[in-house]
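Workshop exercise sheet. Pairs work together: one partner reads the sequence aloud, the other fills in the structure field after running the prediction. Swap roles for the next sheet.
Pair: D.N. / O.F.
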Amino acid sequence: EFNALDSNTSTDIILSGGVVDTATNYSSLTGDATSGLLAIGTQDGDVSITVSDAANMLQFADIDDATTTAVNLTGGISDTADSMADVGGNSTSGFSAATTQDTDVNVTITGTDATVSQLNEIASAAGGTVTASITGDISTLESLTTASTDVISVTVNDAVTVTEFNTLDAKTATAISLTGGISDTADSMAD
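Structure field:
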C-alpha cells in the first residue's frame, strides 16, 4: 500500500498509524532492504514498524535501520543460534537490539542445535517462548536454564537418573528423548 501511495506523490508520506507487513516485504532473507522499506525510512524516520511474521536477524537489521522507533516483532524471530548468540553465550548486537525493543519476542532456533550457553542466553534475553532442539549428555544438559514454557526438544544420549530427568523436564514444555535410557534404583522409579 505504501509503495502505491509513494508512486503517486513527490512529497514525503508520514505514516502516523505505522506500518504492518511481513518480513520479506521489508527485507529479503539475505538482508537486502526492499525499495519500499528504504523509502519509508527516508520519508518517516521514526515510523512505528511491526513485522507480522517471523524475521531473521538480517531482516531485523534492515528494519531497525529504517526507524528510530522500537520495532515490534509480533511474528517473532526465526534464525540460527549463531546469529543470536556466540558459542560462549553472549548475545549478538542485533539480537540484543531486537530483544531490547521487543521484550517478549518469541524465538525459533533453526539449523544446527544451539549450545547450552547459546540457548540459555537466547532464552534469558527473549522474554517470549523459545523453540529449539539440543542434544547432549546429562552433565552438559543439566546446565540448561530455559523455562518450562519453552519448547526445547531435548535428546539425552547417556543414561539419566529419575531425579536428573525430572530436573531437565522442568526446563521444557515438550517431551524429552532419552536415547541413553534411565539408570536408577527401583525405589526411585516407583515413586
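Discussion prompt: DSSP finds nine helices and eight strands in the chain. What would you look at next?
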